[in-house]
Amino acid sequence: MSELKILGISGSLRADSYNSALLRAAQKFAPAGVAVEIYEGLRDVPLYDQDLDTPERRPAAAQELRDRVKAADGVLLATPEFNYSIPGVLKNAIDWASTDWTRTEGVPLLHKPVAITGAAPTNFGSVRAQLALRQVFVCIDADVVVKPEVIVFQAHERFDEGGNLTDEITQGLLQDLLTALAGKVTSRSATAA
Predict the structure, then answer these.
(1) What separation in angstroms does the CA of 107 have from each of 33, 53, 70, 111, 151?
(2) Spatial contact of 48 and 95, defined as CB atoms under 8 Å apart
(3) Residue range 97-105: average pLDDT?
(4) I need a surface site. Which of 59, 71, 100, 153 has the fewest CB within 10 A?
(5) Contact, 29 vs 171, CB < 8 A?
(6) What is the mean pLDDT of residues 145-158?
(7) pLDDT score recorded for residue 189
């Protein structure tokens, strides 16, 4: 079987984001046969506007996001927590990737294998944001990895000054999460065959 392509999306635009660093760690510690590609275009995705959400009118950045999600075998989201919930930029991206009003294109996130992780410097990490994301994915009918839950709390203690994940337990949990995501992808592929 060819290498599985996982699209990593960080819910943070911050230059020194722990969540973007977490995706770089996912690239580094991915199990054999899994490649994590990091999506860098979140800042360019405009606010969701249903009037523009058709194949003819959709903004280029939103269309590129949809195309990247559709082409990926699975999606890995790394989310911070803002006001006990999902950052607006991440929810906005999900809104663009979860529609098909014309019923001609397909919904990029429908049945897509998805894994969720997140990092924050607080004692609770991104637990509430991850819970909110899981509720969103129930509506979308994405195929979400349930276990392990990878909640990187006190993130400032788990990364070095260069943004490298140094905590071995978190490295192992991240590998387990990617292994579970790969399992969902291969299981879905076997069922579809």
Answers:
(1) 26, 12, 8, 9, 28
(2) yes
(3) 93
(4) 71
(5) yes
(6) 95
(7) 72
CB 64 within 8 Å of CB 70: no
Q: Kindly state the tokens that stand for 2.
A: 């060819």
User: Do 114 and 90 meet the contact criterion of CB atoms below 8 Å apart?
Assistant: no
pLDDT at 32: 95
CA atoms within 13 A on the CB side of 24: 13
Measured CA distances, 132 to 25, 56, 73, 79, 126 (Å): 24, 32, 23, 11, 10
Q: Bridge partners of 179?
A: none
Residue 151, number of CB atoms within 10 A of its CB: 20
Residue 99 is classified by DSSP as -
For the whole prediction, is pTM greater than 0.70? yes
Handedness of CA 17, 22, 28, 34 (dihedral sign): negative
- CA-closest candidate to residue 9, choices 54, 33, 34, 45: 45
Q: Rounded to whole angstroms, how far apart are CA atoms 190 and 23? A: 27
What average pLDDT does the segment 122-147 reach? Answer: 94
